[in-house]
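Attaching the record inline, Q. Sequence:
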Amino acid sequence: MSENLPNTNKNEEVDLGVLFNAIGKFFDKIFNFISNFFKVLFSVFIYTLKPLIANFKIILVIMILSGVIGYTMEKYKTQTYKSVMYVKPYFDSKYQLVNNINYFNALISNKDYETLIEVFDITDEESKIIDRFEIEIGPESENDKIKDYDTYLKSLDSIRAQSISYDDFIENRDIFSSDFFEITVYANKKDVFKNLENGLNSSFENTYSEKKKQKRDSLLYIKKQNILASIRSVDSLQKVYIKVLEQDSKTSSSTISLSEGFSIEPENSRTKEYELLNKELELRKELSALEEKKIEENDFFDIVSGFQDIGSISKTIFQKYSIILPLLAFAIICLIFMMKKSVAFVKRYD
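Structure, as predicted:
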């Protein structure tokens, strides 16, 4: 028994030694891999940098020439201007608006200037300087997005609404999800934008929107007539209770007879008159809300902000040739040097 115990201890010591050796070799491999990776990375960096330093003067001259050429192109290139208009469509006229914007761009691409002249009522010269139209969702705050999300959830059943998160809603929105739009026009002349507003205004009108507006007006008319009828009924009842109060002032009876078989207590008449007054106020408030809705949404669209008289210069980073061309030249030079080195390496490889 005592002889087996030392053997067991020796076996355990051997197992631990093997385990520690394996762990040590594993970490050595990791460190060697990281070290070799950075060595290769450094070699590639030096390999790329060496020809650039050796040909520094040539590269500098090429980049300066590219910058001069880019600046010259910027100076003599036809300037592009832009102007923005914000609109709020009603009666689902936004679908026609987006479709017409695409139609206008197709006319420009096809150089169909005659149709552009007819649509926008502009001159031949003005039709040829329009570059393109763009439309996107107008500026909106986080609160606006949350309100849209709440409205969307209310349109769904409770089970379906639980599966739609706010992030999913925002991610899956498209241009038709909004009721507020930003229209941008690009042109080669800075004072043409105001002349395009009338043509864009006609983009909202279509048969579907007209029918929807007529249906809305008919429903509002019916609701208005119902409210007016209710107000007339309330007025009639008010006159009855006023008559009761007048008779109450002339008699000390606890009940007042209005006609054969019908009587009312004065205290009840005062309570009912107050209730009828509140009801009349509610009905008139509803009537006022209907009138306001009809006034606020009586057109197919509202122009929140029209085109500026003078457009602003439109210039993106890709139009700054004095920067783009030198960077492009440098990238091409690097690519040429790498290709030369690669070809030389392949030829030497055995």
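The chain has twelve helices and seven strands. The longest strand covers residues 81-89.

More tomorrow.
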